[in-house]
Hints:
The complex is a heterodimer.
Chain A (H helix, E strand, L loop, with lengths): L1 H17 L4 H12 L2 H11 L3 H19 L1 H30 L11 E9 L6 E4 L3 H5 L8 E15 L7 E8 L3 H5 L5 E2 L10 E4 L1 H7 L10 E4 L2 E8 L15 E5 L3 H5 L21 H4 L7 E6 L5 H18 L7 E8 L10 H34 L1 H9 L4 H34 L12 H26 L4 H9 L8 H33 L10 E6 L7 H16 L4 E8 L4 E6 L13 E7 L4 H4 L4 E4 L12 E5 H8 L8 E4 L9 E9 L1 H4 L9 E5 L5 E8 L7 H11 L5 E6 H44 L1 H9 L4 H38 L6 H28 L3 H6 L2
Helix pairs in contact in A: 1-2, 4-14, 5-12, 5-14, 5-15, 12-15, 12-17, 12-23, 12-25, 13-16, 14-15, 17-23, 17-25, 17-26, 18-22, 23-26, 25-26
Chain B lengths: L5 E2 L5 H11 L4 H11 L4 E2 L2 H13 L3 E7 L5 E7 L1 H28 L1
Parallel strand pairs in B: 1-2
Antiparallel strand pairs in B: 3-4
Helix pairs in contact in B: 1-4
Amino acid sequence: MREEMDVHLARSTERFMARGMSEPEARLAAQREFGNVEYLQELSRDVRGGAWVASVLSDAGFALRHYLRTPLATITILLLLVLGIGVNTGLFAVVHSQLTAPPPGVPDDDALVRIRGTWRMAERAHLFRRGLSYPEIFAYREHPDVIAGVAAWTISRAVLEGAFSEWPVPVTVHYIDNGYFELLGVRPQIGGTAALRSGIPAAIIGDGLWRRHFVGSQDLVGRLIRLNGVAVSVAGVGPADFRGAEGLGTGLHVWLPLGARPAVEGGSSNDTVRSSLPETNAAPSSFALSSPDSTLFTAVARLAEGASLERANALARSISDRFAAATTDPPRGEISADVVPLRNSNAYPGGEDWAEIGAVALLALFVLLITCTNVGGLLVGLSVRRRREIGMRLSLGASRGRLIRQLVTETVVLAVAAGGLVLGVIWVLSENFGSRVAGPGVAIEWPAVGFGVALAVVAGVVFGLAPAFHATRAGLSRTVQDSGSLISASESRLHKGLVVTQIALAQPLLAALAALVLFIAAEWMAHPSREVHEQVVSLEMVGTGGSSPDDLRSALTRFARRLETLPEVVSVVPQASSYRVYNVAVSPSDVVPGRPTAPFMVREQEAPPGYFRLMEIPITRGRRFERGLDSAATSIIVASDLARELWGNANPLGRRLVHVGERGGNEEVAGVVVGVVDEAQAGPSRTANGQTRIFVPHVRVPGGLLVRIRSAAAQAIPLLRSIATTEVPEMPVSTAETMASIATRQRAQMTQAGTAVSAGGLLVLFLAALGLYAVLAFTVGQRKREIGVRAALGAGHGRIVSAFFLRGLKMTAVGLGIGLPLSIMSLHFISEAFGYRGVPLPILVGIVAVMVLAVSCLATWIPARRAARVSPMSALRVE
Amino acid sequence: MPPHNIPVLQGTLDLIVLQLLQAEPTNGYDLTLRIQAITDDVLDVNAGSLYPALYRLESRGMVRSEWEETDARRRAKVYGLTASGRKHLVEERQKWSLYTKALAAILAEGS
């Protein structure tokens, strides 16, 4: 615009000069003829609709000057916004990552899908994951119009020797189909996958394993390692972050061809026929690969071009129906399969992941709402302080809309500043710690972060609208009237409403966090730390290739006998590598009137003869398990708390538990009680996720030994390892640590989780308390003259304090009442999602309400005390 | 004696601009000169009225503009009609024609 007008002026000047004027005269004449350039530019801007831009920029400048004049309030609001936006954005990024991100290290590809076996029990609605058989997965290859490629895998544990470490390393082994890496679009960062198909036993090792136990060596390809004693050549190193198509935890991973499984798994596998390496897809020969009953596998596939998920799901259902009919021992219930996009969060059907994602999303929403109501309350308070200025501007002709726009612009400036700070912090964190700063499996993706910040900023602005409307409702006359009067205007309903909302919203959040803390605490208490743990070593051992289960059992027995000859060893018992979980109920003939009869889920803890003596767990009734007497029988031992719960004061010995649901009817005996142990030493029977421990005498699949040492067990570990190396080379020790060390590690993880959740709870309480304190403190400030008058007229200290204290309590009570049903809903959700069965829900709701009340009382008491200290003289002088 | 130089009647500037731009796309300065030349200096259209009118018509999509280099090696912003502008010009000319006929009829009645 300016250039155009300059051109016009220049040509006018030339025209006047052509008439004989001098240049200065011509220029002056041209300007006179043209008119006021600045005014014309502004007029033109208005015509083009650009006036509002200048106006908004002017408002933003005013906002900045205003905030610089009130630094304390500005910093408080900014910090609150940064906190709320930051937490919300972080949680949103987690949810987004879980919902949309593929497993770590796998490229985002819409054609990649999971094939999931599903199973639903007849009696319950939950959908469980079931393994697929290899023939079932192979059947997908017969439909290339729907499925362009499919790859199966199964996972196990093994012991790796040949790493740059003193002892063998326990690893997670993925036995994979040919073409697994190619189908996923994953390329090793070192080496390649060709060797996996070459016929030579070869493995790809994971990035974590490579860095930790091979010191990131670049000369690894071709190096020989041993997995469960089987020699394997390293073909390459997987990409950073990649942990397989299931995105498993932070363990150490190795990928082997499926054909290597019989040799490496050896006696611990289900194979009855051993096959030689490698297996080809065309001719599966071993039991595990050929039988529809061997449901070991999981699968990932690539959709054919043009094929939809609906067609793939229809195919999955028809194939699962065909193979369900082919199994020799189908479980009760509904067998099916589904096909879903390959995401980090959907390895399991049935809602477990959705529950966690839903919980995180709700948490984010509540945090945002609490922050916004807090900020809204502070803004209302600040705008009331400016009521004279606002009233004056309204009287001078400013429209209400114009003022509202200015106040909203001020909120936008704050919200955008807070959003910018959050983005800056995230950028710094991700530059220093990488995109996985939020933890493994959670990627910080900038579109998601940007969306999260924008959403929070918009929410902040929306909540700023209410204070803006509220501030502009009174005109100058009302403002002057209020300021001249000795009696202040009544408290704003909006202000009170915002505080009540904060208190109401804080409750369900606190209730959920409290339930999580109790869940973690229950798990913590289930792992009591005892002196005897310092003297017990847990040796985890894995069978190597070529050994049958009986071979391994006899090897362990041989090893145990050898250890018992050592002077420092007190006793040795085998330990299990797995446990069973199933539903039971008290046998109808053993029910005690008034005691529960409903079915419950038990988890077997294998405690072979000698276990309780080794662990110094006293038997309070009946007897311990005895060799020869209990090995084949259905004897069980229960802890004293379970015996009390099921049978009260009646004698529990000889009473029976029977199987319920699944494969059994109500008559098959699951266990007969032969003894009761002290729960204080054995740990509580009930776990936080609702399972109940019972002790059984047999070890189905031996996974190592528990060794009791006379003195400190940690020092005996190297000796035990070296004896194992010579005595039982077919069962290398994968881990050797004291029970104390295991308990310490487990408790540390729980402590960490509990601390994080508790910190979240404290933050929520702090925000709610801050809001309540702010409104009451502000009210005290506003009512200073009134308080001065009351004090001058003789009102006592106590009366003034109680007046304000009760005012705050009233708001708290209303907030508690509204928040109560929300708390109950929140706890119900948590207990369903996480199987929490701890403190009864009504008690937990009550505890949270008391906590909120206590904090509210404190937040109310402090400004109430301030009110009582107001001097009548200084209050009446305030203008 | 009638005044030699009269201001443009309100509401007619858009019609004038559209008509002249239809004849030939041009810049704002040449447009003022052309109005003076065609009306023999009777109509007084200054920059303060013309440029807002041009920008208004441009924001309504009736004219478009682009910077060009003139013969005198000077940059100038040249305005031209759009299809919507041509259509609007036809409508305005019809309205003006009806108006002037009605006005003429009234003036003829009195004399």
